[in-house]
């Protein structure tokens, strides 16, 4: 009897051992497959040469961290719940040929972001919709599934932005399925952002022959033109109370400058080398120029207080290629330099709760052209 009992016990232990080995192997295989789909991003080696992502003088940053590690990663914007970011990237390791939209959870750093656009055409300017289950972005995929041809370099070396006529603005689910089309006017419609109260979208359009700002009510799609002066108006964001807009604008001052702007625009191009920061009410009233610094001042965003603006500028650079973050009062006074990278810092955005800031930078890119996303706690 004892011998039979020992045999049953041995059989039970053997079955358990086989099941454990099988389950472990299956689990490991599944986990390996998942990791293969979302490989961990290698963190920056801050110990190498004593480097740290945060540079001397950047007193408004604390716990600065790098979130992407290769390619051109830009315009990273927060979800309403302060937990996720959407941004555009052309990182070849992520199997894209030109800019596509990616999303990641800032609490799960080291996990590869998910592509949430179609993978077709070129995309830009993603922004979360109220509720964070959907987001908007501009895409050229309906005009062509191929990447638009980049503009040819000018003989004088002046930098140009392409204004692709195929751009329209779409809403997609967090799984990447397009659920709504917001614009269908001929020509360029892009650079959309959402008001903090979730009721309106501001965007740039060429529908009336110039690059102007428009505000759309999300509930019914009613759209109103906000700016009307000749020149490029774009990159607009709402104030924390949703009553004001801040944006970048070029304002040709002479007939020659106006002709150059219009000639380039007819070719689908803009030269962004002379821009200043403006504010106005969401209906276009009380338009005011905030900066008068010269050169390129762009990528503005309201400080959480609504009383200051953070933006990117090269006005302090002798050769024009160094862009840093600056902050200024709404009346243009008390200009303060925020970042000190010797190459490029831009696209700053405060989290909705005002506790963090995200921006793109070329700092510590090993001499490549890579632009990466950085996040930090904000210190007022």
Describe this structure in words.
The longest helix has 36 residues, at 2-37. This protein has 380 residues and is mainly β. The protein is built from 2 helices and 26 strands. Strand 13 (212-217) and strand 14 (223-225) form a beta hairpin. It has a single domain, classed as Neuraminidase. It is globular and about 50 Å long. It has helices at residues 2-37, 255-266, and strands spanning 61-66, 73-78, 84-89, 100-105, 114-115, 123-128, 134-139, 161-162, 168-173, 178-181, 189-194, 200-205, 212-217, 223-225, 233-238, 244-249, 269-270, 276-281, 288-289, 297-302, 308-313, 324-329, 336-337, 345-350, 356-361, 372-378. It has a 4-stranded antiparallel sheet, with no helix packed on it. Strands 2-3-4-5 form a 4-stranded antiparallel sheet, with no helix packed on it. It has a 4-stranded antiparallel sheet with strand order 6-7-9-10, with no helix packed on it. It starts with a helix and ends with a strand. It is 13% helix and 35% strand.
Which SSEs are present, and which pair or pack?
Blueprint: H1 2-37, E1 61-66, E2 73-78, E3 84-89, E4 100-105, E5 114-115, E6 123-128, E7 134-139, E8 161-162, E9 168-173, E10 178-181, E11 189-194, E12 200-205, E13 212-217, E14 223-225, E15 233-238, E16 244-249, H2 255-266, E17 269-270, E18 276-281, E19 288-289, E20 297-302, E21 308-313, E22 324-329, E23 336-337, E24 345-350, E25 356-361, E26 372-378
Antiparallel strand pairs: 1-26, 2-3, 3-4, 4-5, 6-7, 7-9, 8-17, 9-10, 11-12, 12-13, 13-14, 15-16, 16-18, 18-19, 20-21, 21-22, 22-23, 24-25, 25-26
């Amino acid at each position: 009897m004892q011998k039979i009992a020992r045999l049953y016990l041995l059989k039970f232990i053997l079955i358990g051992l086989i099941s454990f080995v099988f389950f472990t192997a299956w689990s490991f295989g599944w986990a390996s497959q998942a990791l293969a789909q979302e490989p961990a991003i290698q963190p920056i080696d801050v110990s190498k040469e004593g480097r740290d992502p945060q540079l001397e003088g950047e007193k408004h940053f604390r716990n600065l961290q790098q979130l992407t590690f290769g390619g051109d990663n830009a315009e990273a914007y927060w979800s309403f719940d302060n937990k996720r970011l959407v941004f555009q990237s052309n990182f070849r390791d992520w199997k894209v040929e030109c800019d596509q939209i990616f999303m990641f959870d800032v609490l799960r750093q080291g996990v590869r972001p998910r592509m949430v656009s179609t993978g077709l055409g070129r995309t830009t300017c993603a922004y979360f919709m109220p509720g964070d289950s959907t987001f908007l972005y501009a895409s050229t995929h309906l005009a062509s599934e191929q990447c638009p041809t980049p503009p040819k370099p000018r003989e004088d070396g002046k930098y140009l932005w392409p204004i692709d006529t195929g751009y329209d603005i779409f809403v997609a689910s967090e799984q990447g399925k397009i659920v709504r089309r917001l614009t269908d006017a001929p020509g360029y419609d892009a650079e959309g952002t959402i008001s903090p109260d979730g009721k309106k979208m501001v965007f740039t359009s060429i529908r009336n022959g110039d690059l102007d700002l428009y505000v759309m009510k999300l509930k019914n799609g009613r759209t109103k033109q906000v700016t009307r002066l000749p020149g490029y108006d774009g990159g607009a964001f709402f104030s924390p109370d949703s009553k004001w807009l801040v944006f970048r604008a070029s304002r040709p001052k002479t007939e020659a400058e106006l002709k150059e702007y219009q000639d380039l625009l007819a070719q689908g191009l803009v030269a962004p080398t002379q821009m200043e920061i403006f504010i106005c009410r969401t209906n276009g009233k009380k338009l005011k120029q905030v900066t008068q610094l010269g050169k390129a001042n762009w990528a503005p965003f309201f400080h959480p207080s609504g009383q200051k603006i953070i933006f990117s500028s090269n006005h302090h650079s002798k050769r024009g290629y160094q862009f840093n973050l600056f902050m200024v009062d709404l009346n243009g006074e008390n200009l303060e330099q925020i970042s000190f990278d010797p190459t490029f810092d831009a696209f700053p955005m405060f989290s909705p709760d005002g506790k963090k800031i995200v921006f793109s930078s070329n700092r510590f890119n090993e001499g490549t052209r890579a632009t990466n996303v950085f996040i930090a706690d904000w210190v007022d």
